[in-house]
Amino acid sequence: MQLLDGWLVGVKHVPSPHFDCRPEDDSPSLLVVHNISLPPGEFGGPWIDALFTGTLDPDAHPYFADISHLRVSAHCLIRRDGEIVQYVPFDKRAWHAGVSVYQGRERCNDFSIGIELEGTDTVPYTDEQYQQLAALTRLLIKQYPSVAENMTGHCDIAPVRKTDPGPSFDWPRFRQLVEVTSNKEMP
């Protein structure tokens, strides 16, 4: 896995119009893990890409009428089969966190990277998703070292509003995958 101008090389790119520049002198220092499924509880299909690109058809499903107007994005999505889709370059501000606070600092979009896992709070994530999330995280840590100490869930930065990635996300497993493989890579 490699980065070129904020974009992952060799993954699907679906550029979102829902991003802007980070505040001056602010680089990513936080990784926020989310989940998403559209319609809720259903996996696959074009709907997440459509939401993040502002092209979600409100008539395609009853649930979409309430969300099609949203201007949201994430930096990446990791689908159930491990496919990574990137929407926003990592050096830009994706609109994933909303009203949020991390360790007393507000506006988490300013200094975070948002990674969506295709899933729900209650359905276990796949081995492929954990492997890809760990690999992506290791790459991000090389580019933005402070991310290593700052990984959290959407539920932790917006606890009144959000519950994702939910109890089905295995934080110890994820952290171990990041650490074990990082240690193997060291000379």
Structure characterization notes:
Helix 2 (127-143) crosses helix 4 (171-185). A hairpin with a 5-residue loop joins strand 6 and strand 7 (84-86). The chain has 187 residues and is α/β, with parallel strands linked by helices. The mean pLDDT is 95. Helices cover 23% and strands 21% of the residues. It has a six-stranded mixed beta sheet. A two-stranded antiparallel sheet has the order 1-2. A two-stranded antiparallel ribbon has the order 4-8.
The name CATH uses for the topology is: Lysozyme-like
Strand order of the largest sheet: 3-7-6-11-5-12
How many whole angstroms does the radius of gyration measure? 16 Å
CATH architecture: 3-Layer(aba) Sandwich
What is the CA–CA distance across the termini? 19 Å
- What is the averaged pLDDT score? 95
Strand content: 15-25%
Q: For the record, what is the CATH homologous superfamily label?
A: Peptidoglycan recognition protein-like
Low-pLDDT runs of 5+ residues are: none
Structural class by helix and strand composition = alpha/beta
| Coarse shape | globular
> What does the main sheet amount to?
6 strands, mixed
Encode the helix/strand succession as letters: EEEEEHEEEEEEHEHH
**Can you count the beta strands?**
12
The domain tally reads 1
Report the top-level CATH class. Alpha Beta
Tally of helical segments: 4
What share of the residues lie within helices?
A: 10-25%
